[in-house]
Amino acid sequence: MTYLFLDTEWADPIGSELVSLALITEDGIHRFYAERDPLPEVATDFVRSVVYPLLERGRWRMTDQAMTTGLRAFLGAIPEPMVVADYPNDLALLQYVIAGFDLSDDQAAACGPVPKPVMTRMLKEGATGMLVEDYFAGHPRAAARRHHALVDAEALRMAWLVVTGRVTAPPWALTVHRMGLKPQKP
Q1: Which of 91, 129, 145, 159 suits a disulfide with 151, CB 3.0-4.6 Å?
Q2: Which CATH number fits domain 2-179: 3.10.150.10, 3.40.50.2300, 3.30.420.10, 3.40.50.150?
């Protein structure tokens, strides 16, 4: 099984308008990052002032069809993918992209085979959520880019690695050091 850490950003209050999506494998080597092109026209003030300025655009800009094609190919190349997220809407938006957004059946079919990743959800509560906060506190450059999907996926990955005992608790993992937490099983 290959663990993948997911984060998404969305433009609207109900979380239906995807802005960007990032996945990172447990080892940090394989990454998928995409930004929707065009961006949703209607966005909250927070998204316009915080999320949109963090976007990289350039080669990361993708039409809905290109994003679906790229994501399907990425997931199809990962052996037994298990996607981990800290918010259920991230998983819903991932499924939406895999399904082909609102593309016609012909357009969605042209995006390649639909992968079947195993989904799970990690709660923000507890040690993992606290370790995400510790990660940002210990990494000011990442904290300055918080709400960039790739940065947030990396923070979740690192918190999970610490909580599951896959890495020794680094100095920034204050929650582990203060509370003497024992690693959890994935």
Answers
A1: 145
A2: 3.30.420.10
